[in-house]
Amino acid sequence: MHTWVPALLAVLAALLIAGGTVLRQRASRASGAVTAGWWLGAAIALAGFALQASALGLGTILLVQPLIVLAVLFALPFEAWADHRHPAPVEWAWGGVLVVCVVTFLLVAHPDPTHRRADDLVWWGTVGGLVAGVFALGYCAERITSSHYKALFYGLVAGALFGVSALLIKAVVNQITEATLKPLTNPELYLFVLVVVCAVVAQQKGFGAGDLQTSFPSMTVMEPAVAMVLGVLLLGESLAVSVPTALFLGIVLAVMIRAVVELAKLSAVRGEEIEAESAACAEEQSAA
Fold first, then answer.
1. What is the CB-side half-sphere exposure of residue 89 using CA atoms within 13 A?
2. How many CB atoms lie within 10 A of CB 136?
3. How far apart are the C-alpha atoms of 133 and 157, rounded to whole Å?
4. What is the separation, in whole angstroms, between the first and last Cα of the chain?
5. If you compute the radius of gyration of the chain from its CA atoms, what whole number of angstroms results?
């Protein structure tokens, strides 16, 4: 399978995920409840996840996940349209840095596809331990009173769970290609559904904590980091590069993470400004 097919599917998935996320955020901020707009955004994001699953079935996690990060970039025009404005130059600048980093990583790294999988004991021990640790973070988040740290913990929880879901998606899709009915008898499918539901709940709780500048960046960075590490450890995915090239790619990944964080922070700042303006308008209307 040519790598451009899963790459194209991943880019389209990132586009749909970005649009669906913006719709859900705007609908939640407008009313504070789950509305028709929220469900529309959820449906669009679900279509994006379906494309992501197809991409993971055809390509490696090390190929697909860096492209899914482009959802942060694609959200720029959607947010600008929703806010009736033009993206700021600083947004385009960090967006350009993100694109350059993603393209450089994929051109230099050449991720090797593999059908190898770790032993069941290693597989379930790693995934189970990670999920247990993530739920422990969620428990800590519930007991924290600081909105900053609550948002941070929920962002980490959501990002880690979405990262685990990427691994489970690939496992389920691989099973479907091998035997049509086999996934229905294996626990990966049901664990995937549970993980995704918990990730969405944690994401909403992170947004509800009121500190988007913390929850959004932590979630956005955590997802590809967890997915790529699990892809290497449990699926045997690797990069056919020398040590100097690996160091160079590490720098590229660090810059890419910085670009994602900056774009996520800018989005979070706008979100808080919108909420403040909405609250001010509501106070003026109630005073009148």
1. 0
2. 12
3. 9
4. 64
5. 19
Which DSSP state fits 113? P
Helix (H, G, I), strand (E, B) or coil at 118: coil
- Domain extents in the chain: 114-236
CB 190 within 8 A of CB 251: no
**This prediction's pTM:** 0.78
DSSP structure class, residue 186? S
Per the DSSP assignment, residues forming a β-bridge with 238 are: 112
For 149-185, what is each residue's pLDDT tens digit? 787 888 888 888 888 888 888 877 777 766 555 656 6
Question: What is the maximal distance between C-alpha atoms in the chain?
Answer: 69
Cα 114 to its chain centre, rounded Å, is 23
DSSP state of 112: E
- Map 45-98 to HEC letters: HHHHHHHHHHHHHHCCHHHHHHHHCCHHHHHHHHHHHHHCCCCCHHHHHHHHHH
Q: How far apart are CA 286 and CA 288, in angstroms?
A: 5
- Which helix (H) or strand (E) covers residue 239, if one does? strand 238-239
